[in-house]
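Hi V.,

You were right to ask for the full record rather than a summary. Here it is.
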Amino acid sequence: METEKKEVIFKIKKLKTWFPIKKGFMKKVVGNVKAVDDVSIEVYKGETLGIVGESGCGKSTFGKTVMMLEKPTDGEVLYNYNGEYKDVTKFTKNEMFEFRKKVQMVFQDPYSALNPQKKIYTSLEEPLKTHGVSSVEEREKIMNRVLKMVNIQPDYLMRFPHEFSGGQRQRLCIARALEVTPEVLICDEPVSALDVSIQAQVINMFEDLQESMNLTYLFIAHDLSVVKHISNRIGVMYLGRMVELADSYELTMHSLHPYTKSLISAIPIADPKQARASKRIALEGDVPSPLNPPSGCRFRTRCPYADEQCAKEVPEFKEVAPGHYAACHHLDKCN
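Predicted structure:
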């Protein structure tokens, strides 16, 4: 299917999420942590859009801002309501309540996402009560249905979270998110706390759920090998900005940005001969502080192609090939 023919479910325009830094007795603002800074992107209905980057690049804050768990400093988050786009950042309390039925989030840590003092029955029942399912029989019917969808026995409802493994707890969190039949799941590092073998099971389950429920995923992770397996498209973030976006295969096989190339070169290769033949692109230095990011291109302090232009001008995030976007002044040099 051609990109332009796909239905856009989210239009995110010039999104910024800055956190003020306050010091002293008077709590004077001395600066801002620019966690998300001028990100524009579209999410297509029914796809999995992966967001990758190093720790601290702003990808989790981006997901929480789209969900409106963090208040944006500027920009628009437009959601598709039957062909009409509405800006979520301007929603009233009642509109936000309805929006939360359509967009749900799965968090990184399954150990803290469930109340250890409450049985699973109570943890799964509360969202249904909140969203107006008054009948006990109807609530139990929904709970049993979603537990079967994530391959957990319904008779486990009367157990406590500590009686489950990490993988089972994450499945329970996914089941809870599915109770209100959302259209979009924002998954914030949903498998990073799990063993590798369990990661594969959960990812396969995500794919099955997407097919059966026509879900759209915003899949946030730092592990590019996981993201490329599940995603249709991948966006790469660095220090609050989007630096590259493309189809999953296109990005991994024909990446353009030097930062993306470095991430891809770090993916482990199972074949020893291929692993020895492959060249690892190591980056020098550490990620700069988002409190005081470099001028111009934020990647320039670690980029081998950086020059004076990179220090003065912010590179435009533009389409350089059909469906392939990148933000770099010197794509001709690094390709």
